[in-house]
Design a protein that fits this description.
Helix content: 40-55%
Shape: globular
Number of helices: 4
Largest sheet: 5 strands, mixed
Order of helices and strands: EEHEEHEHH
Number of domains: 1
Amino acid sequence: MINIKKVQLTEIDPESSINVRRTGVSENVEKVKKSIETHGYWGDQPITLRPHPDEGAQYKYEYVTGQCRFKASLDLGLDTIPAFIVELDDDEALRRSRGENEARGDLREDYGACRQLVNLLSTQSAC
């Protein structure tokens, strides 16, 4: 069972290496900020984190899903955010990130992100 935990925003790397969303982020962050300001942060909307894949990184976690919620929370000066913390390799993290965006129907195709996913998958299947 995966539990929701409150995580300090300062423990999360603000630049995810696997996030597939590259465009339209600032507009969506503004929408999320307005929602949080009006309604508060809904605790049943956790982001997904994984332990940072770079053991030497200054951050403990990397976000997999919830980029706009995370960045809106940062902009608003919140201290914590509800999160699932899940052990995911790069392949699983990319799939989960892309899956969340596709499920919402708002992922704009981005050549770089798609290429990153294809390269990772083709490298793993060749082994």
